[in-house]
Amino acid sequence: MNGSLSRRRLLTLGAQGFTASFALGACASNPPASPDDPAALVSSADTTLSNFLRDPDMTWFRNNLPSARGVLIVPAFVRAGFIFGGGGGNGTLMVHDDSGNWSYPAFYTVASGSVGFQAGASVAEVILMIRSQRGADAMLSNSFRLGADASVAAGPVGTGAQVQTSDILAFSRSRGFFGGVSLDGSVIAPRDAWNSTFYGRQVRPVDILVSRNVSNPQADGLRNRLSSNIQS
């Protein structure tokens, strides 16, 4: 039995190593923001939002953004694997009040894993549109799992797209080939160190998104882009 377990362990480690190699390759051609620079991530999030708003396949996203409770923008979600797969990325979460005023961003990480037929690697721009109070409340927790603590479905794209009833809709623009992975089951958690770095003191997501007692002008461009879309 020990021999069988050892062989299984080796297979698992080999698959994970293959996944890591693909992820590194994907990042090399399109590197995400520096891991210790939340300001760079905010700039990348602004670019990603601009890309979505200009994309002709994202008409539903553009038209329904004003009614969303919030958006989590992940400029570079890396997915890779062979049988065992995984993915992840850093993102900025912003919510707006009843008057349409957007909060400053709170920083989060998204991580996923799956088992099943899949091969290849890709880097995708991902935006999670929060559509319900349940989805908004989940974002304020220490961590939560999509599909368990809040329902998630693929966001509709193209002309005449039909929307599913869900707490969160996931929209993506991918570069590269990948099959067999969805965000269902992904874990989302705040990046407390990034939040503290960006705002210059210890803060929690609730301080940024609900109390709104911190600000940073480096995020004004992103906030203005969101506000302009709502007003238009």
From TrEMBL:
Q: What start and end residues bound the annotated signal peptide?
A: 1-25
Does the record bear Ribosomal protein in its keywords? no
User: Which PROSITE patterns does the record cross-reference, listed alphabetically?
Assistant: PROKAR_LIPOPROTEIN (PS51257), TAT (PS51318)
- What terms describe the molecular function in GO for this protein? phosphatidylinositol binding
- Organism domain of life: Bacteria
In terms of InterPro entries, this protein maps to:
SH3_domain_YSC84-like, TAT_signal, Ysc84_actin-binding
Q: Where are the transmembrane segments?
A: none
Name the UniProt key words of this record, in alphabetical order: Signal
What Pfam families does the record tag this protein with?
Ysc84 (PF04366)
Q: Which organism is it from?
A: Skermanella aerolata
The Ysc84 actin-binding domain covers 112-227
Q: What is this protein called?
A: Ysc84 actin-binding domain-containing protein
